[in-house]
Design brief:
Length: 378
């Protein structure tokens, strides 16, 4: 089998209402923007993948990567990973392209990717991953509604200037949902986007103070409390508190996670296969984490294709406990998040996400929507 052609679109799928992500204060999102790539083979099997876009920054890249793709055997994943490492050197962090190869491999073998890579489970417990900063009363009402919808775990953003405001949100949600619902909190301190609005910058002492208070509230984990390569600070914080420390969504490739694991920075690592090496690297990172008794719960806040790709890895590995399910209506909903798919990915009645079981990534792209909301760039 050989790859014979490719096409790519930069898409902006409109959201129902503006979404105000806590990690980019002052810059609301009006669309779910993505670059969507399709690879075609000489056997009539296509593979798809998607990366996050903001504007037109991916223009030109699909044509460049096509030079390396056409004529290649899609089963030669390890070889192509070296190509993507080369792309990173010249400024393109395009690990998501590797995912399309696995989509082809799964379809060619008639299996979902997770079964090819280990088949550890066919569903995983979802946590509703909220993304906006909201006052305690509003967030408590949101949490009750999420529990009514079937979620048994909820992640909150804590990124106010005043620690007391952060803790008030967590306290209000804990009172509203009780002790049976898991609560995770995300400080979004690993990588900071400057230029649109003010935001707090945590140091180790602030992280320690917050962690002590979160211990009293029975929080499942504290995510990204310090910078992504503050190895010493993260390791110190982890030793200091009983709250599990998590992170790693934008750390990159095997050597980066080797440092995080060997230095004892995290109880839970969260590499996203679209950001950190692709699915094959994700499987390797899961093994590294398993050997160190570390959980691997991937970051998934990209779009429906990114969520599907990470779900395939979750289904393959033994040390995954939760699926991040990005959901914060009215702005961020399954319909907007998964706008490029024929059907949104949803939770079941017990609060789990079923791993898509059709061959490849297990999901189907709605090409009419892609063409309607996208500009073809290849």
């Amino acid at each position: 089998m050989k790859i014979v052609d490719a096409e790519a679109y930069i898409c902006h799928f409109p959201l129902r209402e503006p979404f105000h992500p806590s990690w980019i204060p002052g810059l609301p999102s009006h669309a779910n923007s993505a670059v969507i790539l399709r690879l075609m083979t000489d056997e009539g099997i296509d593979g798809v993948c998607s990366g996050v876009a903001f504007a037109g920054e991916w223009k030109g890249f699909p044509e460049l990567i096509k030079v390396f793709l056409v004529g290649r055997d899609p089963f030669s994943v390890e070889d192509f990973v070296q190509v993507l490492r080369s792309a990173k050197v010249i400024g393109f962090r395009a690990w998501f392209v590797e995912i399309a190869l696995w989509d082809i491999i799964g379809k060619a073998t008639g299996q979902p990717v997770y079964r090819l890579l280990g088949g550890a489970r066919d569903r995983v417990k979802a946590y509703a991953s909220t993304g906006e900063l909201r006052d305690p009363e509003t967030r408590a009402r949101d949490a009750v509604r999420l529990v009514e919808e079937g979620f048994r775990a909820i992640k909150l953003r804590i990124r106010y200037d005043d620690i007391r405001r952060d803790l008030a949100v967590v306290e209000a949600v804990r009172v509203a949902v009780g002790d049976e619902v898991e609560i995770m909190v995300d400080a979004n301190q690993a990588w900071l986007i400057h230029g649109f609005g003010p935001y707090p910058k945590w140091d180790l002492k602030r992280a320690m103070t917050v962690a002590r208070e979160l211990e009293k509230l029975g929080v499942a984990w504290l995510e990204e409390p310090l910078r992504m390569r503050d190895y010493e600070g993260l390791a110190t914080l982890r030793r200091f508190t009983t709250v599990p420390i998590s992170g790693g969504e934008l750390n990159d490739d095997l050597d980066d996670f080797r440092e995080l694991i060997n230095r004892g920075c995290y109880d839970i690592i969260q590499p996203d296969v679209t950001f950190a090496g692709g699915i094959l690297a994700g499987r390797k990172l899961a093994a590294m984490a398993e050997a160190a008794h570390i959980i691997y719960n991937p970051h998934t806040w990209t779009n429906g294709l990114g969520l599907a790709a990470n779900l395939q890895l979750m289904g393959a590995i033994p040390n995954c406990t939760h699926c991040e399910y990005p959901y914060d209506p009215p702005g961020w909903t399954p319909e907007g998040r998964d706008a490029m798919l024929t059907e949104p990915i949803r939770i079941d009645g017990e609060g789990y996400v079923n791993i898509p079981s059709r061959p490849g990534l297990g999901v189907e792209v709605d090409w009419e929507k892609v063409r309607a909301h996208g500009e073809r760039v290849l």
